[in-house]
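quick one, two chains, predict together pls
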Amino acid sequence: MEYEKCYVFKPEDSRPVKRRKVEPQGLQSSWNLRKEAYQEAWKAQQDRIDERLRTINATTINGILDFLEEAASNATEIRIPTGLILAGPNSALRTSIAAQISSHSDTTRRRSYIQISSSSGSNLKSLLKTIIQKATSRAVEDDEDELDDQPASRKGGPKLLNYDLELLHLHVQERRIEQVVIAIEDPEACDGELLSELIELFSYWQDRIPFVLFFNIATSVEFLQQRLSKTAIKHLDGRVFDAAVSSDEVEQVFDALTTSDTSLWIGSNLSTMILDRQSDYIQGIESLVQAARYAYMSHFYANAVSISLSPSLALKDVTAQYLEALRNLPSFRTFARQLLDNGDPGRLRDLLDRDDKAFEFAQNSVREGKEALAEILEATEVVRSLQITIPNTTASSKSRMYVQAMSGKLAGSPMLRTLLLTLRKAPSDTAINVANALLERKTPRDLIDELSPIVREIEALIKDQDDKAQPLRSEEDVKNSTLRTTVIAQKVELSKQKSALSKQDAAYTTIIRRLSDVLETYFAEKLVNPKDLTLHEIFLYDLKSPFREVFTPRPRHAVERALAAPHDYLDCDCCGPDHGDGDDATLASTQPSTAVLYQLYLESGNMINASDLWQAFQAVVGDSQDEQQVMAQFQRGLAEMRYLGFVKNTRKRVDHVAKVAWRGL
Amino acid sequence: MPKRRKTEEDVEDEDPTPRKTRRSAKDDERPSSPAQTPSSRKSILKNTPTKGGLLRSVEATPSSLRKVLFSTPNDRKDVVEEDNEETPTNTRNDRSARRKSQRTLQKQIAETEDSDEEQDERDEAIAQAILGDDEDEEVEDAMDVDPPSAPDTPSKTGRPRGRPKGKRRERTPSPPPDLPPHELYFFQNRAGANKTSSNTLPSHLLLNHEDYFAQMKDYKDPHEPDMARLKQLHKRSFDQWIFELEEGFNLCLYGYGSKRNLIMDFAKHFYVHSEKPPQVVIVNGYAPGLTIRDVLTTLASVILPKNSKLPAQPNALLDLLKTSISTPVILMIHSLDHPNLRKAQAQSILASLASHPKVSLLASCDTPNFPLLWDISLSSQFNFLYHDTTTFDPYTAEIEVVQDVNALLGRSRRTLGGKDGVGYVLKSLPENARNLFRILVAEQLALAVDGEEGFGIAMDSDAEDEGILGVENEDDIGMEQDTPSRRKKGGGRPPKKKKEPAPKPVHAPAVGVEYRTLYHKAVEEFVCSSEVNFRTLLKEFHDHQMIESRKDALGTERLLVPFRREELEAILEELV
């Protein structure tokens, strides 16, 4: 079978293989349960993401639909109505707007949607052919009982060529189609002249076929305009739609991923990696979703205790190994230590000895942990709302805030400290804004309860204020102190002097201090390090490892390493690095022949004399062996090097090969 | 490093201009006194305001600059290339385009007068001073690596700053540490820095198919248990792969070693362990002549009802397939990055297939740079999860070892298919034809022997080849362009045997057998009765490219069998 081109796989023995249903042993036995849990968890997540994505460019789509409607109702017959959709540079990765429109459109009007791209045809003929084919074939699918062959050929007339727009015309007439919408997916990649010709041709048919054009523009309208001929542009009646969403899209999806009812939380390291990858390379939003999905998959697949995330888990479902694993979790150990320190060995004994207690404990910890995480998330929102309302501070993005919070560094971060300091200095109008913004959030309950009296006090103060034109000032505001320079004994002394504060200002100062204290204690309390939560291993996933290897592989490095240091992979006794004294450049006769050749190859310049290479190879591998045998190895190695694309033949010199790949680039 | 930089700067301050001389001086100095301190070297520099003398002494011995490749094995076994080992140093040319243009400019001035080097040097120094290429000198310095044999102390590397122009420089096999990738490339790719010997690989050393496979059959890899362990490691992730495939990802396996067996094992595993085995379509991407159409038709045989009419265009077929897939299909492609499938169209079709929710793709990639095949939209369509599955398995199915090596070394592919191929063809031909071929080969051999004796040229087996084939004109080489013409151009014969520069144009031994002579011989031996008959037989040979015909200087037609002598002898042996 190995020399056939392609075939359908059938297991070798035709006799049905005795289905050796290997029951997974140990922890892996709960895999089916975990799989279900995964499916449940991810489905909820996926739904949330889909929901977000659907709403993201709903306005643009509605705008475009209105435009279509308008074009249909007052057809001009002179110029082709054209939608210029600015889709941004990563438009190729998303389902195009045009496709979304065709799926959104209502059925009141009969429209025919045709999407073409630069690959649809390289000349006018083939492009027209594709367009006509797409337009007519779609209709055939709709109602198949019609004439299946050439439905639009004129009765009696000569058979039309398959690129004649007359065909489309007939089709339009036959179906009473009101609009033929042609979406050009990548006008940048199309030949400008071809596009111009196409537009001109369409305009000649505009009186018979009601065309509407859509350009999915990745660069700019000006660029498109430059590429089109003047006559073509004259025939267009364009309108621009902005559909560019990129960073905002990422934020939205990430936000959907980290809502408070998430079952699995993604830790800071992994989120940083995912987000970095997203911004470093232009990736479609899909790649972010897939990355998150893979994180879920890895967690549920490889972590046996993840079973606790299943909401319907009962004690009878779990095995003894599971509980044992649970009791060995590092965070459980810390918890046990705490129990002992607190002098509660009885509870610890219960957890260790009684399965039901342990199980219950796990379920509770998971629930509490998730609540704590939700509170962290809420706290970040509070921070953000402070940032928004306090002037002269920039609001960090949600995702960045999330990453910071998950790393447990937000609580003592300089950013937060400055924020609270600024608040202390803020005059009363700002303070009232801030407080009201927090109150409007309605959550979290306890914070609101503490805030509302403060707000009332401030309001009362403002009401009693003498001078309504000036807001109340805080004592700590720099504007309230003046710098005074005095020269004493030829030294300049700087001294701060607090300007006299009115009584109301003093009262306000105490209140604003209280406000900031309340917030500070709130943050300190809520913004805990997620990794300090008990049993965080269950609901928090923060491993870089499979993500990095699986999404950003380094194949070149892998091949080079395999060849330069085969011991790393083979772990054999014979070619370990201790044979030489270097770390990687150890040639050993025991290494696979290709590896030996590769290392010799690394030493060479860009031309390699095959004869010398052979002699060197022979010298390394050893003359003790039969020359023919060594030659066979040599040939195999050389052929593999060629196959892997390290060498190619050269005509410059006899019996030389050219080096084409350099290491470590 | 900082220390070194400092010393450099010191030197710079003292003596701003003649940079290269310093280098040359130092280079000359080095072998004798390897442990010089920077200060002492500085004094040398001051003492050599006239660079000419030193320079010339360097320039005068170009032979010693020969580079020995593969010095490591050389150290162990002295058998390799004894004649090339005097000095491991080497001229190192400049690499930057600007310097190159400078050099060409200077060359124009200095071309006629070789002794004008001083002038040349000065020009260059001035140009350099003007251009003030300080910034790239830093990199230069970083690349100035000391000979590996005598690792220097940092103090010692405090060499005068500046780039030695066209001076000797150590060529080290291992680059200095911490070079940025692009510099690493230029380091590894220094032009002109490597002189290779002109030895040729004696052709009898290369194994032909039979011998190769015989040897391979006998060979037992000492690493077999390790490879098995490695494979077992990969096998443990089979269940994980199934899960990933189920979740709509596609898998891409990379790493050194053939992944064919692993994938086939996975296919079996998958088949056994899934409740309802899906259709599994295997594509051998390496199979010669595979086209994307083959893949699509095989898929169609699974997806579409039998005897359905398939569209001719791959894209149309793809559309049809994508609309009609109803049951899950797993597509396993060995060597997705094989040249067969490297065309943009093939990759985009496969990506489009892979993005279909009912199609799962498991592909293996062999080359190290395969991700370059896919632009962002393709790779997002593929939606690959990558797994490193280095197996160290030999690429037995993927590579035609003997053929590839021959192609790599520029030996005619036919030569190898040659002897065996000729055997097959002859077997299928009538007795007469075989006899005619035997006569031709015998005559050709006889002529070659005559030629040797007649002209008294001692030829080794390779030169022999030239004796038979090498005289042909470039114009009429036709199919045979690989070997002979190369031979001629390559020029450099190994100096191992005494060899007179044979005045070929005059005394060229007759190439091939004269047409008339062969005809007469054939008639004599009752191989054919008429010229028409004779021509028919020859045509058969010609069609199989077993003979070539060409005109010699006098315009007489000559026929020859385009093989090396030993192969001719082997053929003759088989025929008699």
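DSSP finds 27 helices and 13 strands in chain A.
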